[in-house]
Each structure stands twice: as structure tokens, then as C-alpha cells.
Amino acid sequence: MPTSRTLDVAGAHLHYEVRGSGPLLLVLGAPMSAAQFAPLAEAMAADHTVVTTDPRGIANSTLDDPEQDSTPELRADDVAAILGALGASTADVFGSSGGAVTGLALVARHPDRVRTLVAHEPPVTELLPEAAEQRAVVEDIIATCHAQGLGAAFGKFMANAGFTGDDPAEQGAPAQPMAPPSAQDLRDGERFLTHELRGTTRFVPDVEALKASSSRVVIGIGAASGHLLTYRTSAVLAERLGSEPVGFPGDHGGFLGQPAEFAEVLKKVLVGP
Q1: Pairing relationship of beta strands 12-20 and 114-120 according to DSSP bridges
Q2: How confident is the model at residue 164 (pLDDT cuts 50, 70, 90)?
Q3: How far apart are CA 192 and CA 173, in angstroms?
Q4: Is the peptide bond before 31 cis (omega within 30 degrees of 0)?
Q5: pTM score > 0.70 for this model?
Q6: Coil, strand or helix: which one is 69?
Q7: What 3-state class would DSSP assign to 113?
Q8: Residues with Cβ within 8 Å of residue 100, at least 6 apart in sequence
Q9: What is the mean pLDDT of residues 235-246?
Q10: Helix axes 98-109, 72-86, angle to 10 degrees
Q11: Which one of 44, 55, 172, 254 counts the least CB within 10 Å of its CB?
């Protein structure tokens, strides 16, 4: 069982969990919480000390001001604070989706704290030719959430991301029937769309800082992600970094449906070429 801890930082009270032993690995999502990464964390914990977090404002990480927007820079500073609380000077980092964007901000702001960053499908839409169009889509999603509710807005979000199928297995998720969303899930979903999505998708990676950093930056792309918006954002970022992306099982959420297989690839990437 993981050990749960809380860290107070400026404006927030961060929940994080620690399990396993070995080299330190931080697993980051945004908006995904620590609980959602548990299968991957368990698969990595045999030979890593794995830290999973609830990003600020999500699940058990509460805010003094619930209306505060979440940005990659704020989340990166939160991660650096957690490292400090752990007494760790450096760590490997795996970030998925918005968590990958957090990782990119972490390397740019705290380059001496990251050994290897594996950024799995960061939605860095500002790097795309249609960046202005994507900004407009995000603003429409946010407006829809305020006017029509989470369901209508999330439908638009998923369609823009490229998720149009009904089969959960195609999304890298477990094939069994999914439980209905809890009240916390609904709160987290609304916060994601209204207070986190804009900051995450407007983030522009500092490519020169990433290239100059002593941190090793690896871009991951799901083997089944060719139809997704994040496939293109990841490919563009890898090209700008002058590197080849690494393929992982599944698509954007491959670690949900295939945690053991996903962990095996991640372990090989962390070892290095």
C-alpha cells in the first residue's frame, strides 16, 4: 500500500503518494490524479520509488482559492516542492498529457532537479500550424461548460482530441464496463475544463532551454495514437528537439489498459540508450 502525504505550499495543500523502493520516479498527470496512475505505479514499484500526485485543485489537493487557474508553471513549482519535501535533489519524471506539459515546465524552471523526463503525448497545441484555431476551440469548450454543463463541453473536448470511438479498449482503457463518474470526478472534470485546460494548451515549450538542459528529455507517443491530436503535437515537439519519439503500448491512456507492458517500455527508456 502506498504512503499518503500532504504538503502545504503557497495557496494549495498537495496530496501525494509514495510506494516501492529504488531510484525515485515521479508520475505526473493533469488532470489525472494519483489514484488513476495506481496500476502503472504498482508495475514500476518493484524497482523504483514511485511518487504519484494529485495536481493542485484535483482530488485531494485542495486550494485556498478554488477559482485559481492551474498553469504548468505552478504545477512544476509544486513538483519541485514535493522533491524538496522528499529530501531528493533529483528524480526521473514520467508525465502524461497535461502532466507531460508540467514536466516540460519543470525541466525549463528547475533543470537541475530532473534526470530524465518522459513526456508522453503533451498537448502542446501552440506548436501546430493551426494554433489559433485550437485556441478558439478551447475557448468554445470552456464557454460550453459554463453555459451547458460538463457533459456537452467534454463531448466537444473529446471530439477535438480525436476520440470518436465507443470502444474503451481503443482508448487504451480497460475493456470492462466503466463505473459512473463520482461527484469528485464531476468536480475534477469541471475544474479541468474551466481552470486548467487553457493554461495547459497555451503553454509554449522552451525548446532551447530543453535542449540546453542537462536533463534528458524523451517524447513518448502511443502506438495506437495516430488518430489523436496529441500524436501530432508530440511529433512536432520531438522534431524540434531533434529527437525520435519513443513508442508506448496503447494510445493516449495506454498505461490504463496495459500497465505492465507500458511499465516495461518505461523502464527501458529510463535506463537510457
Answers
A1: unpaired
A2: confident
A3: 20
A4: yes
A5: yes
A6: coil
A7: helix
A8: 28, 119, 120, 121, 122, 220
A9: 97
A10: 70
A11: 172
Q: Map out the domains of the chain with their CATH numbers.
A: 3-271 (3.40.50.1820)
pLDDT digits (tens, 9 = 90+) for 76-110: 999 999 999 999 999 999 999 999 999 999 999 99
126 contacts: CB under 8 Å, gap ≥ 6: 134, 201, 202, 203, 204
User: Does the pLDDT of residue 216 top 70, yes or no?
Assistant: yes
Q: Residue written as cell 485556441?
A: 135
Cell numbers describing residue 230: 496529441
Query: Which H or E run includes 271?
Result: helix 259-271
**Cα–Cα distance measured from residue 82 to residue 37, given in angstroms and rounded to the nearest whole number:** 17
Q: Is pLDDT above 90 for 173?
A: no
Identify the three-state secondary structure at position 11. Answer: coil
Distinct helix (H) and strand (E) counts, the chain = 11, 9
Between helix 150-161 and helix 131-148 the angle, nearest 10°, is 160
Burial of 165 (0-12, 13-18, 19+ CB in 10 A): exposed
d(C-alpha 185, C-alpha 191), whole Å: 10
